[in-house]
């Protein structure tokens, strides 16, 4: 066969592959059972309300806390879980390149040398020496092979690999969202703990002044030693409350350090000085339900998983049909190195190969049923993921509204308790009430103040949950797709 005929044959097989059919169903994203609008309840006066507007991709900046924004930025740059997710994405892309290589011809170049002696009574000796003398044999050339993708097996494999790359991308986006959420939560908890510690320290000062007053009253014969012991017990109880709060603060700072990939106590100097709990008072834009499917990484990842499972059905179906492979080689062969490359030493071989499954003992049918079952499971998982996301957003919105109501009620309770403590201190100084009344009122104030600080942090934490459930945040930090 002449080289021109070889080229014509290759072109013919290429044309045949391009016109071949693609097995398996074409993927379409399933419809989602999401409503057109959120079921929002009117917010109370002075409360932050959820509205249907564009979600801020950098929602943590809305708290107006420079420390929080800096921590999130550093965590997205240094977190180890994010680095692992990025590595998994690169592995997925490398696997995709490996699979896509099956759509192109494989070409090998080689150079071989051997020295041998043939049998005098065996087959013909290519050296022409009838097996009486050893000879050298030199081979060089190019070999190639290419599968005509008549049934779309390779195309569906690449399609499934592309979907797997998307799965890895969404996994990284999900880790980014989780890192942002954990950083914001732990920072808010830290500031809440520091505020709780400040409340205890303030009440400790009040208790210490009360103890001093009681000791003076004993000297004047107005109070008893029992009341001094009760006042001292109150001081010691306040001091005992500080140690767990200090421990919690140190552990939260270390937790933030770990998120940022830093050693323990690395953020101590930066975060140990007390700060206010981050808060946000404006309206909260939350988009519309239909945007969840485009924004939440878990929904996008479930869609990619379903896509990969659907494409794998086409791969399994294509295995039932013949495979046609075109292979050949073009090179030189000579007994002497000096002859290698001359026109007379040229050689080539070319031809198609056909492989047809005849009996597989049910293996191919089982593989097809397996892929169809996985596709059905992935479809159910997609619907469940969408519904779960909807529930998470609704629960987060309810919690955000309820936490604001609780905060306002506790703030009123703190005001009343503070007035009651001022009044009972005056009465105690005048000797009209005993110390038991002072202890009761001060413990009530401390409990209300601690609950109010906790509720203030809970409002901010619930807002973090709102934005995390909406899937917002990873867009502002995701690297450009390569």
TrEMBL record:
Q: Write the record's keywords in alphabetical order, separated by commas.
A: Cell outer membrane, Lipoprotein, Membrane, Palmitate, Transmembrane, Transmembrane beta strand
The places in or outside the cell where this protein is found are: Cell outer membrane
User: In terms of one coarse class, where is the protein primarily found?
Assistant: membrane
The membrane-topology field of this record reads: Lipid-anchor
**Pfam families documented for this protein:** OEP
Spell out the PROSITE patterns in the cross-references.
PROKAR_LIPOPROTEIN
Query: Which SUPFAM superfamilies does the annotation name?
Result: Outer membrane efflux proteins (OEP)
Entry-linked InterPro entries: MdtP/NodT-like, OMP_efflux
Classification via NCBIfam families? outer_NodT
What family name appears in the similarity comment?
Belongs to the outer membrane factor (OMF) (TC 1.B.17) family.
- What name is this protein filed under? RND transporter
Organism of this sequence: Pseudomonas lundensis
Its lineage opens with: Bacteria, Pseudomonadati, Pseudomonadota, Gammaproteobacteria, Pseudomonadales
């Amino acid at each position: 066969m002449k080289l021109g005929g070889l080229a014509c044959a290759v072109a013919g097989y290429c044309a045949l592959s391009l016109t071949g059919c693609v097995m398996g169903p074409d993927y379409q994203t399933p419809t989602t059972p999401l409503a057109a609008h959120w079921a929002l309840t009117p917010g109370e006066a002075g409360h932050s309300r959820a509205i249907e507007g564009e979600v801020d991709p950098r929602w943590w900046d809305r708290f107006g806390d420079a420390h929080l924004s800096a921590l999130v930025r550093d965590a997205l740059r240094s977190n180890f879980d994010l680095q692992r997710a990025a590595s998994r994405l690169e592995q997925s892309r490398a696997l995709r390149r490996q699979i896509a290589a099956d759509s192109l011809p494989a070409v090998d170049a080689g150079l071989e040398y051997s020295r041998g002696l043939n049998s005098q009574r065996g087959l013909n000796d290519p050296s022409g020496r009838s097996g009486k003398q050893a000879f050298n044999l030199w081979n060089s050339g190019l070999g190639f092979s290419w599968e005509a993708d008549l049934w779309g097996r390779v195309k569906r494999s690449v399609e499934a690999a592309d979907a797997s790359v998307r799965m890895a991308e969404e996994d990284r986006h999900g880790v980014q969202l989780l890192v942002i959420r954990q950083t914001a939560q732990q920072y808010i908890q830290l500031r809440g703990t520091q505020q709780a510690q400040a409340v205890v320290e303030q009440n400790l000062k009040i208790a210490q002044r009360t103890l001093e007053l009681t000791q003076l009253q004993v000297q004047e014969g107005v109070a008893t030693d029992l009341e001094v012991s009760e006042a001292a017990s109150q001081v010691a109880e306040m001091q005992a409350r500080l140690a767990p709060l200090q421990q919690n603060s140190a552990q939260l700072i270390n937790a933030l350090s770990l998120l940022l990939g830093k050693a323990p106590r690395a953020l101590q100097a930066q975060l140990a000085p007390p700060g206010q709990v981050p808060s946000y008072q404006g309206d909260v834009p939350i988009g519309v339900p239909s945007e969840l499917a485009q924004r939440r990484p878990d929904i996008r990842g479930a869609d990619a998983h379903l896509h990969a499972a659907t494409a794998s059905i086409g791969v399994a179906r294509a295995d039932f049909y013949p495979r046609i492979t075109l292979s050949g080689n073009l090179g030189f062969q000579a007994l002497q190195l000096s002859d290698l490359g001359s026109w007379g030493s040229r050689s080539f071989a070319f031809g198609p190969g056909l492989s047809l499954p005849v009996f597989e003992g049910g293996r191919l049918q089982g593989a097809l049923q397996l892929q169809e079952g996985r596709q059905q499971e992935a479809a159910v998982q997609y619907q469940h993921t969408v519904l779960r996301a909807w529930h998470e957003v609704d629960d987060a919105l309810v919690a955000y509204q309820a936490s604001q109501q609780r905060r306002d009620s506790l703030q009123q309770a703190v005001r009343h308790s503070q007035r009651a403590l001022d009044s009972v201190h005056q009465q105690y100084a005048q000797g009209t009430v005993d110390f038991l009344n002072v202890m009761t009122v001060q413990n009530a104030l401390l409990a209300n103040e601690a609950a109010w600080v906790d509720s203030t942090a809970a409002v901010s934490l619930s807002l973090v949950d709102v934005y995390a459930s909406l899937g917002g945040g990873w867009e502002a930090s995701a690297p450009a797709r390569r």
